[in-house]
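During the no-cost extension, the postdoctoral fellow (Dr. R.K.) reprocessed legacy sequence entries with the updated structure-token encoder. One reprocessed record is reproduced below for audit purposes.
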Amino acid sequence: MKILAIDSSGLVAGVAVTEDDTLLAEYTMNYKKTHSQTLLPMLDEVKRMIDLELSSLDAIAVAAGPGSFTGLRIGSATAKGLGLALNKPLISVPTVDALAMNLYGAGGYICPIMDARRNQVYTGIYAFVPEKENADAGMEQTCRLEVIKAQYVAPIEEVARTLNDLPEEKDVIFLGDGVPVFHDKLRELMKRPFACAPASCNRQRAAAVAVLAQQYVREGRAGVMENAADHAPEYLRPSQAERTRREKEAASGKQEMKGQERQEQTEREQRGQEPSGHVDL
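Re-encoded structure tokens follow.
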């Protein structure tokens, strides 16, 4: 199965092409340019370098969120456009799950953290567990990614508390663009040993998105293949613009309510001053 994968959910933009268990090409960019500037040129370069016929693709995988609102929209729009033009299905892969996949086979708990601003992170908790032994495999062992706590958004203090309270005595490996932001905080908060992944595997990779997409298909997950027109990013929380709009609407509603209360109070006072129609003789 040949899959084109796109990840523009964070600061890193990436494009990858896999065929079954082979990574044919990957292009990753982590520099001071917007995804709208880099994503399509990267895709075009990958296509050119491996003589890729887009019609030969079986599906398009995309990091569906959470992450940067603008980045997710760019990645989603690119994947949807390709899917609709080529009549190919899309496979949505949770961003945080794909980040955890970078550390395949690692022991302990894996905790990706992406800076979500306002002292919050997009995160999840994972572990790689051995699959059932295969008598024909000899000493070979394969692992599957176990989701201990599905991706969510929370303050870094809550994340550390959750990790500290996990029952098994395992170390934690952190990765993601939230690590340099919250590293000092983690040193204060963590009560169990932890490590931070190195630069070679601590950011989003489109290849990991492709690998998980392949895995979803092999597992026969229901609804894994979606029509391009039906795809939508998973933001996990409202955007800053939406929060601002809601705050303005709430403030406007309060002002309107206060104005109505003042009007009613004035009317009550006016009624109290009006003659009652009774005259004492």
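Confidence is low (pLDDT under 50) at residues 274-281. The first strand starts at residue 2 and ends at 7. The remaining legacy entries will be reprocessed before the final report is submitted.
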